[in-house]
Amino acid sequence: MGNRALVIFHEHSRKVYGPVVYLHWHGGMVGEYLSQVRALMGERLDDVDYATARFIGLAHEDNRDALSLGVWEKPRRFSDTKAWLEEFSHGDAGVFLVDAKTWEVRTFGGYGLTDEAAAA
User: Fold this and answer.
1) Total tally of structural domains belonging to the chain
2) Is residue 17 part of a domain?
3) 8 touches 85 (CB < 8 A)
4) Is 58 helix (H, G, I), strand (E, B) or coil?
5) Which residue range(s) make up the domain with 68?
6) CB 104 within 8 A of CB 111
7) Which string of DSSP letters, residue by residue, matches 41-53?
């Protein structure tokens, strides 16, 4: 079915959330993409919109076909609770909630960052 991941950048202290970025085949690459985005952001932390845009740009370079990369607004009923995010997950790599200020990554409903090699 794929190696899916949902990535959402946010700034926790202000409760600001970016759109959901969907990867169909490259869930195992999320950690690498995040490392590259962090380097690109430099000192411009706390910018959810720019971090999301940079992540999409990097993911696009590896996802050139028409069906492997998507972006949509988070659901109105969105909650950053463990139970909700695990239910929201498509499986595979799961949901990645990335704090654009602290760069803390929390994962839900999938193998996350710890077992990326297993999905390859």
Assistant:
1) 1
2) yes
3) no
4) helix
5) 5-115
6) no
7) HTT-TT-HHHHHH
